Amino acid sequence: MSSPSHLSLILDLTPVPWDALSHSTPPLRLKDFLAQALVFINAHLALRNENSVSVFGALPGRSMILYPPAGSTQVEADENTFHVFGQVDEGFMRSVEQEVEDLQEVEEDVPPALVGALTKSLCYINRLSNPPPPSNPSEAPPPPPHSRILLFSVSPDASVAYIPFMNCIFSAQKLKVAIDVCKLDESEVIFLHQACHLTGGAFVPITQREALLQYLSMCFLSETETRKTLAVPTLDKVDFRAACFCHKEIVDIGYVCSVCLSIFCQPVLECSTCRTKFSPDTLLRFGNMNLNGHAHTHSNGTVTA
Amino acid sequence: MPPRRDADFNISDDSEPEDDELDEDYNASRTIRTKGKGKGKGKELGAYAWEASYKRSWDTVQEDEAGSLQAAVQDLVARSKRRRCACSWGDAPIRRTIIRHMMFLVDLSTAMMDRDMRPSRFDLTLSYAREFVSEWFDQNPLGQMGVVGMRNGVGERIGDMSGNPQDVLKCFLDKTLLEPAGEPSLQNSIEMARASMNHLPTHSSREILIIFGSLTTVDPGNLLDTVDACVRDQIRISIVALSAEMKVCRDMCERTGGVFGVALNEGHYKDLLFELVPPPADKSPVSRLAAQAGEGQSELMQMGFPTRLPATAPPSLCVCHSRLRSEGYICPRCNSKVCDVPTDCDICGLMIVSSPHLARSYHHLFPAPAYKAVLELDGKEASACHACSLPFPTTARAPLQTEEGMSPHGRYRCPKCKHDFDAECDLFVHDVLHVCPGCG
Ligand SMILES: [Zn+2]
Ligand SMILES: [Zn+2]
Ligand SMILES: [Zn+2]
Ligand SMILES: [Zn+2]
Ligand SMILES: [Zn+2]
Ligand SMILES: [Zn+2]
Fold it and tell me: Zinc fingers (C4-type) at which residues (chain B) (predicted)?
């Protein structure tokens, strides 16, 4: 018999794009979205008695756990299923409302703390997959659940956190956790593409928002094992561009320090990471390319943005 | 737990233990003993390194109220994990050589047929070598490795320097081609390895890793001349010996800035080998990179980050083999399609790498800040771990069990974001994640 599965949801709750979404056609208000997400969560819990769920939120500049409530002991999944439904519904809705209410004073242009939410989710999953030994040694410990992460994205990639974000992807790979991304708006995300590609998750842009629940249950409800036999949409193209260390800009041709592999968008005299000074010959070699390379990145940037 | 390697070093040196860490251990163990049993043997300790790390585990174990050893055992496990990691977590990012070139020299002499390690030295070496190669390429994505066998008094080229893990793994797959025979020759093999690293670009490290089972070496000339040449070429030699220490081997490693270790058992063998996986910290005096940084000789490389086409894309011809295929990578400069990365674009010559390959090594450059153990509570702390949201234990452990780097409350605090984490998450953050959940 297969082991139970754990689903970790990460919600991008940044107010500005949610406001835009609720005024777009067709509108998707946060409240409606949460209602559909809840149905999806309940469907996941109902699939199997031992299934469990955790929800993390990312707000501008901070991230928090929304469910199970912080400080509580591990969720007991073996209770009456309907009871669990009730717990999730109440606990989850209450904490989202709480967090959104607290939000008013926060500045608007801070990117959401996706990395914070991802790291917390990974730490939580790590605890689930390495449970403390049972107090009674004669009992066989319950099998650790298969975990996966589903990220709802409404804002463009914040390239500011390129390195921490990549570290999260590699940790997810190590834990054998797939990262699925459900993209609710049209903004460009490069690193989320890479996350899905590297962890074997699905990337699904929602083109018809009124059918959100349909997308959720068709694409994200099946666990990674089952997906081998299903036709879950996979990525079309994967863009392997990276963010430069100097301006956090996304580049397709970069200059890389041979000592520490830091990426720069244009030739530099000294590596800002490891303080290596580069030989003048190298710089001369890129001298004429400098203009070309720059024009190239720029034209590319304007086309894709 | 195998004895620590520093300990073997000192056995043969017959010198005073100089290592700070040993002194700390020794002091800690002494206080525990005098406090715990009051035997007052403190003054006799410390002459030898192996006495310093000796500690009676039953002295430190305490039953909880219910008379169970559960908590105490978990605590011991956590402590040993923490001690293992504490030495590798630094505050400041160290500069490391990330583009590595390694020649892997494997002893294939009859000494490898010895069965003191199960199933035999030879079989064990092959299986460890395979694991080592995969792990090494995982952590050194732009590295290259070649394999040389030592048997019948000569060095035998088994695999050329390659950046493809599959090519290197292939060298260790067919056992029958590697059948041990005759005597090994250190000099011949090292000379062969040295020759194949002569042409390397200046920005890469040059390393030789030797797995040595024999106690003799059959050389055509003076081995020390070869070592001199390696020092000149700034080649770092590391040796994992399977039998016993040989003076010439230890000297060789010390002079070239490498690591020397003698494997005591199967587990220790693996530990020694896998310590060589992470890029070496760039501290040794012979480091070519440190020297170069001063002279301004390091290079900046231009690299392109491609777009990957899926298997469902319309097929097109690749520029490398002119084959009709769907999958491939698009060169960002000239838009031609190549089959695999990393490679140089056949049309415009741009080096094409996938950026996640580079990113794999960034945690060496920007490690998460080391957490400090919280020794005293002021009543204002969060009740749950900031990362996994599990509650902290409410009762502190007995003071007897506190030790350097361990928190009696099971709390570890990030110096940057001032959030508290439990021991499990502390380990996970620094071992795997490399991002602080509070700062991220
Ligand atoms: Zn830049
Ligand atoms: Zn650098
Ligand atoms: Zn091809
Ligand atoms: Zn090209
Ligand atoms: Zn924790
Ligand atoms: Zn922190």
Answer: 331-348
- Residues of chain A found within 8 Å of residue B310, distances taken between Cβ atoms: 234-238
Q: What is the pLDDT of residues A182-235, one digit of tens each?
A: 999 888 888 999 999 888 889 999 888 889 999 999 889 988 778 878 877 777
Do A214 and A125 form a contact (C-beta atoms < 8 A)?
Answer: no
Nearest Cα of chain A lies from the Cα of B306 at a distance, in angstroms, of: 6
Cβ-based neighbours of A241, under 8 Å, separated by 6 or more: A190, A250, A251, A252, B305, B332, B355
Ligand nearest to the CA of A71: 5
For chain B, the domains span 1-39, 76-93+367-440, 95-274, 304-363
Report CB contact under 8 Å: A71, B384: yes
Indicate whether A102 and A186 sit together in one domain.
yes
Structure tokens belonging to residue B427: 């380990």
Transcribe B211-235 into DSSP letters. Answer: EE--S----SS-HHHHHHHHHHHTE
| Residue to test with chain B: of A253, A259, A303, most B Cβ within 10 A | A259
Q: Please report the pLDDT score of residue A83 as a whole number.
A: 63
A68/B389 touch (CB, cutoff 8 Å), yes or no: yes
Residues A73, A35 within the same domain: yes
Q: What is the 3-state secondary structure (H, E, C) of A65-100?
A: EEECCCCCCCCCCCCCHHHHHHHHHHHHHHHHHHHH
The verdict on A251 and A108 lying in the same domain is no
Which residue of A179, A260, A269, A296 is the best one to mutate when testing the B interface, meaning the one whose CB has the most B CBs within 10 A? Answer: A260
Question: Among the three residues A176, A195, A229, which one is the final residue of a domain in this structure?
Answer: A229
Q: Are B104 and B129 contacting, i.e. CB atoms less than 8 angstroms apart?
A: yes
Query: Is residue A185 located within the same domain as residue A299?
Result: no
pLDDT of residue A173: 87
* Interface pTM, i.e. ipTM: 0.84
Per 3-state DSSP, what percentage of chain A is helix, strand, and coil (rounded to 5)? 45, 20, 40
DSSP letter for each residue of B18-60: --HHHHHHHHHHHHHHHHHT----GGGTTSSHHHHT---HHHH
Task: Note the pLDDT of residue B373.
Answer: 86
Residue A116 domain flag: yes
Q: How far is B98 from chain A (nearest CA, A)?
A: 6
Average pLDDT over residues A143-159: 86
| Whether residue A273 sits in one domain with residue A197 | no
Instruction: Judge: B425–A163 Cβ closer than 8 Å, yes or no.
Output: no
- Closest-CA residue of B relative to A296 is B333
Q: Which residue has the tokens 């199997």?
A: A48
> By the CB < 8 Å criterion, does B76 face chain A?
no
Q: Which portions of chain B are predicted below pLDDT 50?
A: 1-47, 49, 52, 54-55, 84, 86-93, 283-296, 400
Residues of B with Cβ-Cβ distance to A120 under 8 angstroms: 386-389, 437
What is the tens place of the pLDDT at every residue in A7-48? 999 999 888 888 889 888 888 888 889 889 989 998 998 888
Range of the domain at A133: 5-229
CATH number at A77 reads 3.40.50.410
Q: Nearest chain B Cα to A162, which residue? A: B359
Structural domain count of chain A: 2
Q: Which of A92, A53, A51 is nearest to A69 (CA)?
A: A92
Laid out side by side, the sheet with B235-241 consists of B154-162, B144-151, B100-107, B205-212, B235-241, B260-262
In a domain, A79, yes or no: yes
Of the candidate CATH numbers 3.10.50.40, 3.40.50.410, 3.40.50.10490, 3.30.1360.120, the domain formed by B95-274 belongs to: 3.40.50.410
* Residue of A59, A74, A119, A168 best to disrupt the B interface, most CBs of B under 10 A: A119
